[in-house]
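Predict the 3D structure for this chain.
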Amino acid sequence: MPGSFELVVDGTPQSHVDLGDPTHLFYEYVRRMGHVIDQLPAGPLTAVHLGAGALTLPRYIEATRPGSRQQVVELEPDLIELVREALPFPRGASIRMRYGDAREVLRKLPAGLRGSVDLLVVDVFGGARIPAHVTSLEFYTECAALLSPDGVLLVNAADGAGGAFARGQAATLGVAYSDVAVLAESAVLRGRRFGNFVLVASKGELPLDWMPRLLAGGPHPAALVHGRALRDWIAGAAIVTDQTAIPSPTPNKSVFEQRGGA
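Done. Predicted structure below.
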């Protein structure tokens, strides 16, 4: 599509950006994240992004909620400089870049952000895998300290057959947060193939009226687990700690040939 660009790192698609229409979210899991963001209270947001690739979601938030204050943490300054040169930020956007390891920079964010963040997005990948140190209870507890009482955490978790890694992430979030929900394509949620799970968590209760709207927003076929259904889906998965954390599974190369959306 004219005006659309894809960021690929070491053979792994990382981001898709439509400069002409930043509200166009190409990847299915990113669209699900966008639907959650749309459910947050109207108006500008205070948002922190741990990992952002070509900044698809920061651009989306700027387009749909002008005046938002956003902080983006990325590991590779050279990559972001390349992205900014090829795909400039919208003029006047309040998007501040910080460079370094996501967990280390998280600890160094301004004290004024603590307890005031409306949205914290965790989308950290080293190549095609999620590093172990951003999957643990200790890490998610550090994330929770940034959120406002009604703030929302969004996590992109990739997993394959059986979904053991994703279920472990949901179980771990359930310890650090009061309420958790999981969105995915139906076949991915049932553990039939590799795919992306969008985990949603809050220190308060997630509004129940979100749930049918998130499903209706697609992409389809969509599935959402919450409450009792989520507890059944987790099915005794172990809590992940710094001592037990492992990276997410390595996907087959064929996964990236099928990845994407309408």
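Strands lie at 4-9, 12-18, 46-50, 69-74, 94-99, 117-122, 147-159, 179-185, 195-202, 222-226.
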